Amino acid sequence: MVIFRSSLLSNTKSLIMDYRNMHFLRKNAYINGQWVNAQSNAVFPVLNPADDKVIAEIPDMDAADAKTAIAAATESFRTWKYTTAKDRAAMLRRWYDLCVKNQDHLAEIITAEAGKPLAEAKGEIVYGSSFLEFFADTARHINGEVIPSPWPNKQIMLTRQPLGVVSVITPWNFPFAMITRKVGALLAAGCTCVIKPAEDTPLTALAAAQLAEEAGFPKGIINVVTASRKNAPAVGKVLCEDPDVGCISFTGSTHVGKILYGMAAKGVKRVSLELGGNCPFIVFPSADINHAVEQAMMAKFRNNGQACVGANRFLIHADVFDAFVEAFKNKIIEKCIIGPGYKAGVTCGPLINIEQATKVKSLVEDARGRGAKVVIGGKPALEHGTKFYESTILTDVKPEMKIYGEEIFGPVAVCHKFNTEEEVLEIANSTRTGLGSYVFTKDLGQAFRMSQKLEFGMVAINDGVLSAAEPAFGGIKESGIGREGSKHGVEEYTDIKYTLFSALDK
After folding, report:
1. Start and end of every Aldehyde dehydrogenase domain (predicted)?
2. CA distances (Å), 361 to each of 58, 276, 301, 372, in order?
3. Of these residues, 213, 274, 484, 492, which one is catalytic?
4. Is residue 96 within 8 Å of 132, Cβ to Cβ?
5. In this predicted structure, what is the pLDDT of residue 17?
6. Which end of the chain has fewer surrounding CB within 10 Å, N or C?
7. Is pLDDT above 70 for 7?
8. Are strands 480-481 and 222-224 parallel, antiparallel or unpaired?
């Protein structure tokens, strides 16, 4: 399976598996330019999801540590906001160059802590680094406006200014790219940040911070607070409610996003929320079925289904349903190779943790017990470990089944039949989330109608991959607020200042 359209790493054997020799494996948090322990000296283990082996023990920080990090970011903002766009761009470019130079080492860390196959991990580094490259260019194009005045002898000017300290809370599924997409944008705008990475995948964040330090970012500009699942709520509360924080940027579940949004509301803080997806993948009779299946493999099995823009509901026209499902099954047999991420040829690694594996198993068992048909897969791949699950296709799924309306976040494709355009629009839009959607058709008019009528922030026509640095990434409804990537992703971290110049004739 081609993931992020990248090639396999050449040094797959080198990872089996002495973590002590892993480049950029940091075992301390990063605050105010220093690699530090938690004030309590508490630590927690980071595990490889493929075999539950401990990769490293790192600081288990609490609310006091989070406050220290915010204080450092606040102090550094006093000078950072006055740096020139040219200087910020140069540092971002150096960070990009270092990430590209060290992409194999960074990919090893992702494979170790997130379980991704090496090829896919390297693809994430290429993808994530592209945001640093893009925002290095964008930093020099954060423009204001001069507006024609309604009054004589007066001039109106609008300028964009950095809004301050940003709390960056990132998920485990793309531990590098979700940092670069947020941090690259806010640094370009002139903000500083405190990053709280997911407890399952903090090592990638620390490696990225080390390369940022080498790129020349001053102390306090980027801070990384690591915390276990136990301490995460207390740290998150500080990151959302501290008065020195100007914005909360979060990617994760809609449930957690609502909690953070409520905390941010207490201080009327800016939020940038990228939340749940439940994305439909729609195939019309005019579609090239072989192409649609190839794209379905990427849309569904990227990161083993653990992606917010992963296809969740496959809505296939009745005229091509059987042909699509059969081709999809055959492609899974050919391309979905389960195993630990460091093993050559593997395309589907473990799910991130036992909770996620249990959820996927429960959803499929509930559907099977209520009459759903398993076309392929349908059970844990226990011969590989406790967190591996077979690549699965389900049909005959009914609304009363839990899996019908829930985002799966695993390697399970649920295929439904439809007969008319109006019917598929009703099914696709019948969700409170609205992130991404995929449509396959050769009818140009139909493509435009679907783009207009689908209630999603993003629509891909005849493609299974939406994400890049250049477009504005984000959803509507309960899928979030704001956009990431593009110039709009930088503008999320700015305030507009209106200056009126008067008495110009004096």
Report:
1. 35-498
2. 31, 20, 16, 14
3. 274
4. yes
5. 56
6. C
7. no
8. unpaired
Q: How far is it, in rounded angstroms, from Cα 324 to Cα 292?
A: 8
Is 470 a known active-site residue?
A: no
Which residue stretches of 54-169 are H helix?
A: 63-80, 85-101, 103-114, 118-138
Residues 6+ apart with CB under 8 A from 374: 364, 368, 392, 393, 394
pLDDT of 411-450, one tens digit each?
A: 999 999 999 999 999 999 999 999 999 999 999 999 999 9
Determine the Cα–Cα distance for residues 83 and 381; give it in Å rounded to an integer. Answer: 53
Q: Which residues pair with 167 in a beta bridge?
A: 194, 248
Token pair recorded at residue 419: 């007969």
274 is catalytic: yes
Rounded to whole angstroms, the Cα distance separating 438 from 310 reads 10
Average pLDDT over residues 158-172: 98
Q: In the chain, what is the straight-line distance between the N-terminal and C-terminal CA atoms, in Å?
A: 70
What does the alpha-carbon distance between residue 111 and residue 343 come to, in Å, rounded to a whole number? 10
Q: How far apart are CA 175 and CA 367, in angstroms?
A: 31
Does residue 325 sit in helix, strand or coil? helix
- Greatest Cα pair distance in the chain: 84
Q: Is 433 helix (H, G, I), strand (E, B) or coil?
A: strand
The Cα–Cα gap between 301 and 1 comes to: 9
Given pLDDT bands bounded at 50, 70 and 90, which one contains residue 18? Answer: low
* Residue of 193, 279, 308, 415 marked active site: 308
Neighbour-count burial for 99-132, b at 16+ CB within 10 Å, e otherwise: beebbbbbbbbbbbbbbbbbbbbbbbbbbbbbbb
**Helix-helix angle 202-215:103-114, to 10 degrees:** 160
Name beta bridge partners: 497: 159
Phi, psi of 418, rounded to the nearest 5 degrees = -140, 165
Q: Strands (DSSP E) along 301-411, which ranges? A: 311-317, 373-376, 392-395
Whole-structure pTM over 0.85, yes or no? Answer: yes
Q: Edge-to-edge strands of the sheet including 145-147?
A: 145-147, 155-162, 494-501
Is the pLDDT at 15 greater than 60? The verdict is no
Residue 266's Cβ-count burial label (10 Å; 0-12, 13-18, 19+) is exposed
If one counts every other C-beta atom within 10 angstroms of the C-beta of residue 314, the result is 25
Q: What is the mean pLDDT of the chain?
A: 95
Determine how β-strand 34-36 pairs with β-strand 29-31. Answer: antiparallel
For 20, residues 6+ apart whose C-beta sits below 8 A from its C-beta are none
